[in-house]
Write a structure and sequence with these properties.
The protein is an all-alpha fold. It has two helices and no strands.
Amino acid sequence: MLFRLPSATLSHAGSPVARCQSSLVPRITPSTGKEWHSSVCVPGLILAAINAKNLWDEHWEHWEHLPPLEDRIEYPYMNIRTKKYFWGDGDKTLFWNDKVNYHHKDE
């Protein structure tokens, strides 16, 4: 051979080239997961909870400006009853909420 590389530049396990390449690969360890959890996940969940609380408060502020439930228009497609429910007084659905639902009973 006319030209031969020095043995230090060959990519054997203990050579400087191999050490340089392995330092470029990120190491993922259990402590990395804990760092992500405490620095990214927990603050993200806190911000999401604050946002949800603000949206909830805005919704109920808007609800206060609406007329009372008894004065609202009940359209023909709302609260259709073909037969009575077998629970309660027979008029309220399973997911009935007295704060937001109202049904004008037929007179």
